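Give me the fold.
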Amino acid sequence: MKTFILWFGWYGFNSGSIIFITVDDNYLVVSHTAINVSLAASAGCIMSLFLSTIVAERWTGEISYNLQYTMNGCLSGLVAITPGCSVVDSWAGIIIGMVAGALYLGCSKLLVMRRIDDAVDAIPVHVSLF
């Protein structure tokens, strides 16, 4: 539930940053920003879901779907698209979200492997900013 609340708030954060929507066709920028936010979040979500399933299947031999990885992959896509959400093309928003989802999963696995405690995976979610 927290992921969807944050995702909804991201529309207000990114798209709502433009103060005057009716001046100089800013409504086009607002809609483009909202589309890129949706695409990057969805791509990060799907990428981390499929990648975590493949990794789990390779390690254990059983197919399992981890919802925590999926939702945090969505958040990593949102974090990654925030700096350039109004200036990148839509196809680039998808790529940014996919890379962020993969980076999130790799960093999360690395923290577990190095025995660094991060209960809510906040560090791996924000690793795409670097």
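The helical segments are 2-14, 26-60, 67-81, 90-113, 122-126.
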